[in-house]
Amino acid sequence: MLSSSEPSQIKLQAANLEIRRLRAQDVPDIMEIESVSFGRHHWSEESFYNEMNNQVGRYYALIHTDINKLVGYLGFWLIADESHITTVAVKPEYRGNALGELLIGHCLDRCAQHTIHWVTLEVRVSNYSAQNLYYKYGFASMGIRPKYYQDNQEDALIMTTPNISSAEYRQLCKDLKQKLDKRLNGLPKGYGT
């Protein structure tokens, strides 16, 4: 899941960003982020190409429009009434701009437009910054997957949302979206679509 946050070296606003479906030509940029964010046990190029053709998969690129470069990405599956976030990462020099939060908010917006009730994910037990983001969006810890991560046999924390179609959860997301909009001076083109 989302790698730990580091101080951002580059500041962005919504006017400089666009969220769109992932394209094959994005994979080389993704691989650069993968190796830095997830070490040598990251997804392969082939995995991303396969996932872009997965009928239940939805994969999105976050593009810095001023330079036409991918700075983050997110993927999730839609299966029956549940969504599972499979990957999310932001290029290290862009961390600290709420881009991970932007991608999670986009995912939750997209899921709410389907018949999805719950969203799940796994995150390293040591990745407190990602966990804090997920807690902020109502995810709760549901257990541990022992030795889930291949690189160091670290456990994964299993997290899930409450019912995202509930009035309470919709209000939480609306409030967080307004705060994100204010922080980024708007929301990027493609957000929630």
Topology:
Elements (H helix, E strand, L loop, with lengths): L16 E5 L5 H12 L6 H8 L4 E8 L4 E11 L2 E9 L8 H14 L5 E7 L3 H9 L3 E6 L10 E5 L6 H17 L10
Task: Give an overview of the whole structure.
By secondary structure, this protein is an alpha+beta fold. The protein has a single domain (14-183), classed as Gcn5-related N-acetyltransferase (GNAT) (Aminopeptidase, 3-Layer(aba) Sandwich), CATH 3.40.630.30. Helix content is 31%, strand content 26%. The chain has helices at 27-38, 45-52, 99-112, 128-136, 167-183, and strands spanning 17-21, 57-64, 69-79, 82-90, 118-124, 140-145, 156-160. A 7-stranded mixed beta sheet has the order 1-2-3-4-5-7-6, with helices on both faces. The longest helix is centred in the C-terminal third of the chain and has 17 residues, at 167-183.
Outline of the structure:
By secondary structure, the protein is α+β, with helices and mostly antiparallel strands. The chain is 31% helix and 26% strand.
